[in-house]
Amino acid sequence: MTLIESSPVRTATEDICVSAPPTHPRAAGDDRYTISEVVTFTGLTAHTLRWYERIGLMPHVDRSHTGQRRFTNQDLDWLTFVGKLRLTGMPVADMVRYAELVREGEHTFERRQELLERTRRDVRTRITELQDTLAVLDFKIDYYAGARRTSERAS
Question: Is-above-0.85 flag for pTM?
C-alpha cells in the first residue's frame, strides 16, 4: 500500500495528501531522485530524511542496485504533506501513526479522520491564541506610535 496515489484522477478512496496537483521536477516514470536532490527540493536535511525512514514516517523508499535511496514524485508529495503536519504542531508519534494507518488500508479511514480532526481542533485553538496575541501587539504598537507623536509635538 502506498502512502498516497499519484494518479491525476482521484477517487474517494485515495489518500490525497496535497490540496492542488503537485508540480514535480521530473515527470512520472523519470522520477528517481537521490537524497541530495530531495534535500534541495524540500529543504529537509539528509539526516532528517534518513530519520523519517528509520521511524516509519517515510517507509519503503526504493533503493538503486548500489543501495542508494531513490525517491519518487509520490515520496515528494508525502514529504510535502508531512511538512504541513509538522506546521500544525502534530507530534511525530501521531504522524508516524497516521502513516501506519495509511499503510494498513481503507478500513482505517475513520481513525485517520479522527486524528486529523483532533489536529484541526488544535490548530484552530492555536490560531485563536495567535489572533489574541496579535491584537495585543497591535494595541502596543499603536500605543507607542501615539506616544511618539505626542512626544515629538511636545519637543
Answer: no
